Amino acid sequence: MIAVIADIHGNIWALDAVLADIEKRGISTIVDLGDSLWGSFDPAATVNRLIERGIPSISGNCDRMLVAPSDEEKRAQAYQFTIAQLSDAHLAWLRDLPKTITLDGVLFCHGTPFDDATYLIEQVTAHGVSIRPDAELTTMLGDLAVEGVCCGHSHVPRLVMLADGRWIVNPGSVGYPAYAGDEPVPHVMESGSPHARYAILKREAVGWSIEHIAVPYDWQHAAAVGQKNRSAEFARWIATGRAAIG
Fold this sequence. Notes:
Number of helices: 9
Strand order of the largest sheet: 3-4-7-9-8
Number of strands: 13
Distance between the termini: 40 Å
Shape: globular
CATH topology: Purple Acid Phosphatase, chain A, domain 2
Largest sheet: 5 strands, mixed
Structural class: alpha/beta
CATH class: Alpha Beta
């Protein structure tokens, strides 16, 4: 079995709850799909936990931005908050993260296998967020000789089966269940609840079973920290798993 985590964003309380749940289930293999630290929680404790547990991690777009930020990214509140708490050793860990990992016939990435800043499963248009058509997903994966792909980035738990037999799983976000984005057009991503999310992959005789797990933790505490360090809007996202108002 493989436990797949993603998009922790420095939420150490959510991460610890997920790791405890994984341990309780007797799962020893964990893969982290990246965007582990950027945010308004406790990035130093989070990276220390990942390092001490020896959890294989992938570089997400926000991990990349921490070690090679643009001038605009340097002005972001989340960048300034996060970078101030990281040591040289933490930054070295970030620089060494791979873009993808392949394990047991499954490819693990952050966005797509080829671009850490693009949603794989979802398409965002002026009409909203929806799942990409099968043909488009097949084209995006190209001729990758894998049984399945695990991706993060959108923070929304999903499982999509392609006509060619391959599947795509997003485990959802460990620590950041909803947000509002503005690229390519304004949109929201929301899981609908504040639970810490992850997924379990298990190879069965006839294929892979996929289980999405929602773990309770003290999200009110996390939201309070987020409000102190960032904003009331951010705290609402963490405490509700919803980004849209209404």
